[in-house]
Amino acid sequence: MTVLKARGLGRKYQRHWALTGCELDIPAGHVTGLVGPNGAGKSTLLRLAAGMLEPSSGTIEVCGGVPGSGPAQLAKVGFVAQNTPVYTNLTVAEHLRLGARLNPGWDDKLAHDRIARIGLDPGLAAGRLSGGQRAQLALTLGIAKRPELLLLDEPVASLDPLARREFLQDLMEAVAEHGVSVVMSSHLVADLERVCDHLVVLVDARVRVTGEVEELLATHRRLTGPRRDVDTLPADQRVVSARHTDRQSTVLVRTDGPILDPAWDVGEVDLEDLILAYMANPHVGRPSLGVVR
Ligand SMILES: Nc1ncnc2c1ncn2[C@@H]1O[C@H](COP(=O)(O)OP(=O)(O)OP(=O)(O)O)[C@@H](O)[C@H]1O
């Protein structure tokens, strides 16, 4: 089942396209990592999915409906925006009461347990919380809503390392126990490596690569060998990035078949290698032959 489907999806601000030609099928029951450079269009995609923005072109379907199209649709989707908005004059406890009132699937025990574990004072006004504590409150509201799809825009950016680890643990539990689907943007590749089994890389407003992490890792290889022109590689080895010194070439390729050329030393890639290769070289198939010293 697909939890987010985009077809020719685009969004422009004035005359600038923040997202364009976006084709996505994000499967249900997975944690999908959304990565890309600053300004790539990640928040724009998440806000389109949450129904906070209208597409300028194409279509987007979330949990089988049009984002933001009514109360039933809103109940299916949780969204924690990048600035983790909370009501500054309401206390932590009032936020939980509001959550319970507004959300049909609200898990009150989970919300209270989490707030207690984090150590947030229920009587404190949200405006007096630190940035990280505010993020924790917003994330608690998002998880306790028990949505079908949870959209998180850089959720852990302001959390300390321990809080980050615990939050990711909570997230994985929610996925395992309640089958919630998650799409989260992050610049922290190590975190994505821990929790994501699906990946979308956005660069320059376009989807550069998307797929199951396991499948992506299985089909990408790092080739190291005597310097050569990447145009001489077999057609089934799609060049993602290439670096050259005077004598040596290092090429990251996508291929389904084995690498038979004995001149290459063939290595596996990890998620960070893969993400950086796609982020560094947006012009797939047109790698630079510049010399790196
Ligand atoms: N409200 C807006 N008005 C005009 N331009 C905008 C607006 N919001 C975003 N943009 C532009 O759209 C592009 C994509 O922005 P977006 O916030 O989606 O990127 P992002 O990938 O989330 O970036 P970051 O990693 O820095 O959070 C950027 O060029 C940005 O300047």
From TrEMBL:
One example GO MF annotation: ATP binding
PROSITE patterns in alphabetical order: ABC_TRANSPORTER_2
Domain named ABC transporter: residues: 4-229
Keywords: ATP-binding, Nucleotide-binding, Transport
InterPro entries on file: AAA+_ATPase, ABC_transporter-like_ATP-bd, ABC_Transporter_VariousFunc, P-loop_NTPase
Signal peptide as annotated in the record: none
Database matches in Pfam families: ABC_tran
Annotated protein name in UniProt: ABC-2 type transport system ATP-binding protein
Source organism (scientific name): Saccharothrix saharensis
